[in-house]
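Morning F.,

Quick status update on the modeling queue. The single chain you submitted on Monday has been processed. Sequence for confirmation:
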Amino acid sequence: MTTRIAMWSGPRNLSTAMMRSFGSRIDTFVSDEPFYGCFLKDTGAGHPMSDEIIAEMDCDWRSVMASLTGPAPDGSPVWYQKHMWHHMTGPIGYEDFAGFTHAFLIREPERMIASYLRKREAAEFKDFGLERQAEFFEREADRLGRAPPVVDANDVLASPEAVLSELCEAIGIAWDPAMLSWPPGRRDTDGPWAPYWYAVVEASTDFGPPEADEVELPDDGQRVADQCRPYYERLAKYRIRP
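C-alpha coordinates below.
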Protein backbone atom coordinates (compact mmCIF):
# COMPACT_ATOMS: atom_id res chain seq x y z
CA MET A 1 0.00 0.00 0.00
CA THR A 2 1.35 3.41 -0.99
CA THR A 3 1.14 6.39 1.37
CA ARG A 4 0.55 9.40 -0.89
CA ILE A 5 1.42 12.75 0.65
CA ALA A 6 0.08 15.78 -1.18
CA MET A 7 2.07 18.80 0.07
CA TRP A 8 0.19 21.91 -1.02
CA SER A 9 2.12 25.13 -1.38
CA GLY A 10 2.43 28.41 -3.20
CA PRO A 11 5.57 29.41 -5.10
CA ARG A 12 8.65 30.44 -3.12
CA ASN A 13 7.49 28.72 0.07
CA LEU A 14 10.59 26.56 0.65
CA SER A 15 8.77 23.90 -1.32
CA THR A 16 11.77 22.58 -3.26
CA ALA A 17 13.93 22.33 -0.14
CA MET A 18 11.06 20.41 1.48
CA MET A 19 11.01 18.10 -1.53
CA ARG A 20 14.76 17.58 -1.09
CA SER A 21 14.16 16.73 2.55
CA PHE A 22 11.57 14.05 1.78
CA GLY A 23 13.64 12.82 -1.14
CA SER A 24 16.45 12.05 1.30
CA ARG A 25 14.37 9.30 2.89
CA ILE A 26 15.12 5.78 1.66
CA ASP A 27 11.40 4.91 1.65
CA THR A 28 10.12 7.89 -0.37
CA PHE A 29 9.70 8.83 -4.03
CA VAL A 30 9.10 12.52 -4.84
CA SER A 31 7.20 14.22 -7.66
CA ASP A 32 7.75 17.85 -8.60
CA GLU A 33 4.63 19.90 -9.49
CA PRO A 34 3.00 17.29 -11.73
CA PHE A 35 0.17 19.60 -12.86
CA TYR A 36 2.45 22.43 -14.03
CA GLY A 37 2.36 21.37 -17.69
CA CYS A 38 -1.46 21.10 -17.59
CA PHE A 39 -1.70 24.61 -16.15
CA LEU A 40 0.60 26.13 -18.75
CA LYS A 41 -1.07 24.41 -21.69
CA ASP A 42 -4.58 25.39 -20.56
CA THR A 43 -3.89 28.97 -19.52
CA GLY A 44 -1.09 30.05 -21.83
CA ALA A 45 0.54 31.75 -18.83
CA GLY A 46 3.80 33.43 -19.80
CA HIS A 47 6.04 31.59 -17.36
CA PRO A 48 9.78 31.09 -17.88
CA MET A 49 10.56 27.98 -19.96
CA SER A 50 6.86 27.35 -20.64
CA ASP A 51 7.43 25.76 -24.07
CA GLU A 52 10.03 23.36 -22.68
CA ILE A 53 7.80 22.44 -19.74
CA ILE A 54 4.78 21.71 -21.95
CA ALA A 55 6.93 19.63 -24.30
CA GLU A 56 8.36 17.46 -21.51
CA MET A 57 5.32 16.94 -19.29
CA ASP A 58 2.04 15.06 -19.48
CA CYS A 59 -0.41 17.94 -19.98
CA ASP A 60 -3.67 16.00 -19.67
CA TRP A 61 -5.32 16.63 -16.30
CA ARG A 62 -7.04 13.27 -16.01
CA SER A 63 -3.99 11.34 -17.14
CA VAL A 64 -1.79 13.05 -14.56
CA MET A 65 -4.34 12.41 -11.81
CA ALA A 66 -4.59 8.74 -12.79
CA SER A 67 -0.82 8.36 -12.56
CA LEU A 68 -0.71 10.00 -9.12
CA THR A 69 -3.22 7.52 -7.72
CA GLY A 70 -1.23 4.48 -8.91
CA PRO A 71 1.86 2.99 -7.28
CA ALA A 72 4.94 5.14 -6.83
CA PRO A 73 7.08 4.99 -10.00
CA ASP A 74 9.97 3.28 -8.20
CA GLY A 75 7.81 1.15 -5.91
CA SER A 76 8.53 3.18 -2.77
CA PRO A 77 5.97 2.85 0.04
CA VAL A 78 5.80 6.65 0.48
CA TRP A 79 5.09 9.02 -2.41
CA TYR A 80 5.66 12.72 -1.67
CA GLN A 81 3.97 14.98 -4.22
CA LYS A 82 4.80 18.69 -4.36
CA HIS A 83 1.74 20.59 -5.59
CA MET A 84 1.15 24.30 -6.31
CA TRP A 85 -2.21 25.92 -5.70
CA HIS A 86 -2.08 28.29 -8.64
CA HIS A 87 -1.65 25.34 -11.02
CA MET A 88 -5.03 23.86 -10.11
CA THR A 89 -7.15 25.63 -12.72
CA GLY A 90 -8.49 22.57 -14.52
CA PRO A 91 -11.13 19.88 -13.86
CA ILE A 92 -9.29 18.17 -10.97
CA GLY A 93 -10.77 18.94 -7.57
CA TYR A 94 -10.80 17.94 -3.94
CA GLU A 95 -12.76 14.73 -4.51
CA ASP A 96 -10.14 13.42 -6.94
CA PHE A 97 -7.61 13.23 -4.09
CA ALA A 98 -9.56 10.74 -1.99
CA GLY A 99 -7.13 8.53 -0.08
CA PHE A 100 -4.30 11.07 -0.08
CA THR A 101 -2.73 12.52 3.07
CA HIS A 102 -2.73 16.30 2.78
CA ALA A 103 -0.34 18.81 4.32
CA PHE A 104 -0.01 22.55 3.78
CA LEU A 105 3.18 24.59 3.43
CA ILE A 106 2.85 28.34 4.01
CA ARG A 107 5.14 31.36 4.25
CA GLU A 108 4.71 34.91 5.47
CA PRO A 109 3.36 36.84 2.46
CA GLU A 110 6.05 39.52 2.47
CA ARG A 111 8.83 36.92 2.40
CA MET A 112 7.07 34.84 -0.24
CA ILE A 113 6.55 37.81 -2.53
CA ALA A 114 10.04 39.22 -2.00
CA SER A 115 11.46 35.85 -3.07
CA TYR A 116 9.12 35.72 -6.07
CA LEU A 117 10.15 39.21 -7.19
CA ARG A 118 13.78 38.18 -7.20
CA LYS A 119 12.91 35.87 -10.09
CA ARG A 120 10.06 37.72 -11.84
CA GLU A 121 9.34 41.37 -12.58
CA ALA A 122 5.90 41.54 -10.98
CA ALA A 123 3.56 39.56 -8.75
CA GLU A 124 -0.22 39.28 -8.76
CA PHE A 125 -2.53 37.73 -6.18
CA LYS A 126 -3.55 35.04 -8.68
CA ASP A 127 0.10 33.87 -8.86
CA PHE A 128 -0.20 32.29 -5.40
CA GLY A 129 -3.54 30.42 -5.45
CA LEU A 130 -4.44 31.27 -1.88
CA GLU A 131 -8.21 31.28 -2.31
CA ARG A 132 -8.04 27.68 -3.51
CA GLN A 133 -5.70 26.89 -0.61
CA ALA A 134 -8.22 28.12 1.95
CA GLU A 135 -11.10 26.24 0.32
CA PHE A 136 -9.14 22.98 0.14
CA PHE A 137 -7.85 23.33 3.70
CA GLU A 138 -11.34 23.85 5.09
CA ARG A 139 -12.78 20.91 3.20
CA GLU A 140 -10.01 18.63 4.46
CA ALA A 141 -10.47 19.92 8.02
CA ASP A 142 -14.19 19.16 7.80
CA ARG A 143 -13.43 15.65 6.56
CA LEU A 144 -10.91 14.94 9.31
CA GLY A 145 -12.76 16.73 12.10
CA ARG A 146 -9.54 18.61 12.86
CA ALA A 147 -7.03 20.79 11.06
CA PRO A 148 -4.69 18.95 8.68
CA PRO A 149 -0.97 19.61 9.29
CA VAL A 150 0.31 23.08 8.41
CA VAL A 151 3.99 23.97 8.24
CA ASP A 152 5.38 27.51 8.08
CA ALA A 153 8.60 27.83 6.07
CA ASN A 154 10.37 30.00 8.63
CA ASP A 155 9.50 27.60 11.45
CA VAL A 156 11.21 24.84 9.45
CA LEU A 157 14.30 27.03 9.06
CA ALA A 158 14.30 27.87 12.77
CA SER A 159 13.84 24.29 14.08
CA PRO A 160 13.87 21.74 11.25
CA GLU A 161 14.05 18.60 13.37
CA ALA A 162 11.31 19.70 15.76
CA VAL A 163 8.91 20.74 13.01
CA LEU A 164 9.62 17.92 10.59
CA SER A 165 9.43 15.19 13.22
CA GLU A 166 5.99 16.48 14.25
CA LEU A 167 4.96 16.70 10.60
CA CYS A 168 5.96 13.07 10.07
CA GLU A 169 3.89 12.02 13.06
CA ALA A 170 0.92 14.02 11.78
CA ILE A 171 1.03 12.41 8.33
CA GLY A 172 1.58 8.93 9.69
CA ILE A 173 5.17 8.11 8.72
CA ALA A 174 8.23 7.49 10.87
CA TRP A 175 10.66 10.34 11.51
CA ASP A 176 13.94 9.94 9.61
CA PRO A 177 16.94 12.16 10.52
CA ALA A 178 18.09 11.84 6.90
CA MET A 179 15.50 14.54 6.15
CA LEU A 180 17.78 17.19 7.70
CA SER A 181 20.41 17.19 4.93
CA TRP A 182 21.02 16.17 1.34
CA PRO A 183 23.79 16.20 -1.30
CA PRO A 184 23.98 19.28 -3.52
CA GLY A 185 23.04 19.17 -7.18
CA ARG A 186 20.08 18.55 -9.46
CA ARG A 187 17.87 15.45 -9.29
CA ASP A 188 16.27 13.36 -12.02
CA THR A 189 12.97 14.03 -10.26
CA ASP A 190 13.32 17.83 -10.56
CA GLY A 191 10.94 19.49 -12.99
CA PRO A 192 12.20 20.79 -16.36
CA TRP A 193 11.99 24.34 -14.95
CA ALA A 194 14.87 23.63 -12.55
CA PRO A 195 17.48 25.54 -14.61
CA TYR A 196 15.50 28.76 -14.07
CA TRP A 197 14.27 28.36 -10.48
CA TYR A 198 16.49 25.92 -8.55
CA ALA A 199 20.00 27.42 -8.43
CA VAL A 200 19.86 28.10 -4.68
CA VAL A 201 18.48 24.72 -3.70
CA GLU A 202 20.90 22.93 -6.02
CA ALA A 203 23.77 24.53 -4.09
CA SER A 204 22.24 23.70 -0.71
CA THR A 205 22.90 20.77 1.60
CA ASP A 206 20.30 21.60 4.28
CA PHE A 207 17.53 24.08 5.06
CA GLY A 208 19.87 26.88 6.07
CA PRO A 209 19.35 29.59 8.73
CA PRO A 210 16.02 31.22 9.62
CA GLU A 211 15.04 34.47 7.95
CA ALA A 212 15.62 37.20 10.51
CA ASP A 213 15.72 40.39 8.44
CA GLU A 214 12.66 42.56 7.88
CA VAL A 215 11.35 42.54 4.31
CA GLU A 216 10.66 45.72 2.37
CA LEU A 217 8.52 45.45 -0.75
CA PRO A 218 7.67 47.95 -3.48
CA ASP A 219 4.17 49.38 -3.19
CA ASP A 220 2.71 46.96 -5.77
CA GLY A 221 4.28 43.99 -3.98
CA GLN A 222 3.00 45.15 -0.61
CA ARG A 223 -0.54 45.42 -1.98
CA VAL A 224 -0.35 41.79 -3.08
CA ALA A 225 1.06 40.81 0.34
CA ASP A 226 -1.87 42.57 2.01
CA GLN A 227 -4.28 40.56 -0.16
CA CYS A 228 -2.49 37.33 0.80
CA ARG A 229 -2.29 38.08 4.53
CA PRO A 230 -5.81 36.94 5.58
CA TYR A 231 -5.35 33.56 3.86
CA TYR A 232 -1.92 33.07 5.43
CA GLU A 233 -3.25 33.90 8.89
CA ARG A 234 -6.22 31.56 8.47
CA LEU A 235 -3.82 28.61 8.17
CA ALA A 236 -0.96 29.94 10.31
CA LYS A 237 -2.96 29.63 13.51
CA TYR A 238 -2.92 25.84 13.01
CA ARG A 239 0.76 25.52 12.11
CA ILE A 240 3.16 23.12 13.79
CA ARG A 241 5.21 25.27 16.18
CA PRO A 242 8.80 24.46 17.06
